[in-house]
């Protein structure tokens, strides 16, 4: 069964790519394509199982790629404590972030580990201008202040 699909936008070149994909791959695999209701992406349907697969538009694919990249950066900072705190925060909230909030998250990820650690452990206070200007930093500080002991279990 065809597992992965390339992202297609609504421009003419993408439409021609979709028609080539239909003519070359889909009939041989028992799939056919139909446009989605919003016409922002195509839906591929397997004729045998009637399972649908969405083909994202190029902007959705780029946004998904950016979210994955930022989530990886949050989980692999090099300090275990920050990896856990920032990684779980990002996993929980990143799907709700738009482009602007992703930019703000990227600003937070650019901050130095020692500063973040001091702020999260309340050894130093977070600069007021950072909290006022960066909504994601505010959310992250609220997340750190909340009790998350039930989320971290050792098996």
Automatic annotation (TrEMBL):
Q: Which UniProt keywords apply?
A: Chaperone
Q: What is the native source organism of this protein?
A: Durusdinium trenchii
Tell me the Gene3D superfamilies matching this sequence. Flavinator of succinate dehydrogenase (1.10.150.250)
InterPro entries for the chain:
SDH, SDH_sf
SUPFAM superfamilies for this protein: YgfY-like
Q: What is this protein called?
A: Succinate dehydrogenase assembly factor 2, mitochondrial
